[in-house]
Each structure stands twice: as structure tokens, then as C-alpha cells.
Amino acid sequence: MAIISEISGKDGTELPKAWIEACTGSETQVPSASTDIFHLVRESASNFINSQPEPALVTVNGEKFKEYVKTLDIATFDKYVKNVNSWSSSLPLVFDNMAQELNLIALVDLLQLGSGFHSELHEAIDRGASDTIKFGCMSLHISQTSIDAKGLQELTLGDISEHFGIPLLGKERPMQKGSTAVTISEASSLRPLAEIILGTLQDTGCRLEQAGFSSLADFIIRICAEKPTAAHLVAKLVSAFPSLRDVSEVNGQLVYLFKKAQLMAYDVCQRFGKSDPKFAFPDIDQMTIFVDNVVPAMLQHHGLITVSQEIQSKISRGEELSLQETASMRAASIVAAQSVVDSANEAAKSSGVVFGQTPICQATLDSFWWREGKEPDLRVIPRLIFKKTVYF
């Protein structure tokens, strides 16, 4: 499969600047085909957290995990995981065929970004980032807008504004001080988000077409036909698409996170794994959490990770974190999640405890913590903000 490395849109036009700046992993060397990609993510996160200079930006609280497992409400765990896992099968849409449905689900996961614009989105359109993305993708489908490889390249910023409901213009102000005869509109604070979405779609469409794939669904179907594992699909996704190459380089150290690529593989398995063996990935339990801004907040709430006073002050004031601070929180979340999984497995071995209908692994913990974070009393917990990213 060919990999296109240049950052350019259809006919060589430059992609939106906001996307280029947010796509920080675009030049990162991708893992080789033989790499155990989930092990790579866990190992890089652990190495990064363990090599922090003192005082550490984020601490993983090792003594808390066994107690946390004991207090887990298994009925609630099963309920929340089932709720999150069912989203793709409960879309209020009609599809012509499986490939069309797969394409839309993959598009939603490709665009799971914009969490840093949470406040601006709620103020402007009364939706969070995830709902904005789902709403926009459904609008594209309902309007019969082409979202194959060619169609993605032909989308405009106006299309993104229309379908996702993101305003491009902000408040009007007088062109001359003291005069209201002529006014000009400022750019909306959400315009960079619209540009990041547009760049993600245009770049993905360009790379699909140049590599010989008709759509994102076509890519996934053909890759999974080669080898029906989540690891194989994730490795191919991050290799092919910079918008999924979720790697942070901090002080010369690479932290592999791959949030959206793992989420895409997980959702494909949940939706189609029971009906098509090439999507019945046997290695789902090896995935790491799909860490965004919600999971670290829940881990802090449960006392499983502790952040430095400087980070906490920024979060409390609603200020944007640095790349290093953001990477530290996300990496620590992966380390903490694995410790919860290990503690649950140890408890099951030593006492024969049964943890309900849903096996506890990092992927199911992610679903649980993400849904838990939507509860009204926990939704108000301040979360990290990092806007210049295409990865969450």
C-alpha cells in the first residue's frame, strides 16, 4: 500500500493551516509492520511516566488500584460499557449496504477531535465536541453528500460550517471607532476547529485516492481481509493517515497514544464483529484506553493519578495546557488503566471474583470512564484543554 507523505490538498492546494499545526505526528516515523503496536503504546507511556524529572508533572498512585477495583459497581460497569458500545448500532439512519454504514462509523471516529473547544461549542451551539461530530457526520449522510475518497477532497469550509453547525464568523464590530455605519465581523473562535475538521477530511480523502482506495470503508475492509486483528488494522491506519498518527514528541522522547485509530478498530469490531469474521478481532483486550480529556479527569476524581499544582491550577482556571503536560496526563492514564486491569485480574485469580458480564480490559474501562464522565455530578469536573491537536 502506498503511503503519501506530503501535506497538500486536491490539485496541490495547501490544506488548512490549523490542521497542519494540529497534526503534530505527521512527520513521525511509524512503527514497523512487525511491531506489537498495543505493547508499544503501553511501553512508551510507562517509559515516559517513569522517566519524568522531579517534581513529576503527573504521578500514578500505585497503592490505590486494588482498593478501586474492590469498589467498582459491576452492574453500573456493565450498563455503561453496553451503552457506549451500542452507539454505532443505534444510529437513526438508513444505509444502502454494510460498506456505507462502515464508512460513516469510521468517519465519526476519524473526527473524534475538538475536545479543547468544549466551552466555545456549548456557548455557540449547545453541543459538546463528540455530539458536534456525530451531528455533522449524520448531516452529511442525510444530505447525500459524497463522503468517499473523492468527495472528502471536495468539501469546503462552508460545507463544514453548514453540516456541523460551526459558525465561521463571530461578533460584529465597527470598522471605525465611534461609528456604527460600517461594521466588520471577526473570525469565530471556532473557525480553527472547522479548519481542523476540513483538513482531516481532505487529507484523508487525498491519501485514500492516491493509495488506490475508494473510501475509508474500502480501506478497512481490504486491510482486515489481509489479517483480521485489531493490531493489524491500527498499525495500517496510523501508517496511512497523519490525522490518526497520535504521537507526542516531548524532549526527544516519543509517546505513542493512537487514540482514534484504536477507537475506530474497537467500534468496527463492536458493530460488525458478530456478523463478519474479518471484523471479529481476537485481540481487543490488548488495546489501551482511547485517552482524551475525559478519562484523565475521571482518573483524577478516583485518586488514581495526581497532577502537579501547576497543571491543576491551569485546569481549574480553564487555561490551555502545554504539549508536555497534555502528553503526561494521557500517558499516565494508560499506565493507570493497565494497573486497574492487572488488579482486577489478580483479584479474580485469588478470590474467584466474577466481574460481571463485561471483561475488564483497557478498552472496556475506557467506555466505562467516558460514560461515567457524562453523569451530571461528574460532568462539571474541569478537564484538560489542548486545542492545537487533531487527535482528541
UniProtKB/TrEMBL annotation:
Catalytic activity: queuosine 5'-phosphate + H2O = queuine + D-ribose 5-phosphate
EC number: 3.2.2.-
Domain of life: Eukaryota
Signal peptide start and end residues: none
Listed GO MF terms: hydrolase activity
Keyword annotations: Hydrolase
GO annotation terms (biological process): tRNA modification
Annotated family: Belongs to the QNG1 protein family.
Job of this protein: Catalyzes the hydrolysis of queuosine 5'-phosphate, releasing the nucleobase queuine (q). Is required for salvage of queuine from exogenous queuosine (Q) that is imported and then converted to queuosine 5'-phosphate intracellularly.
Protein name: Queuosine 5'-phosphate N-glycosylase/hydrolase
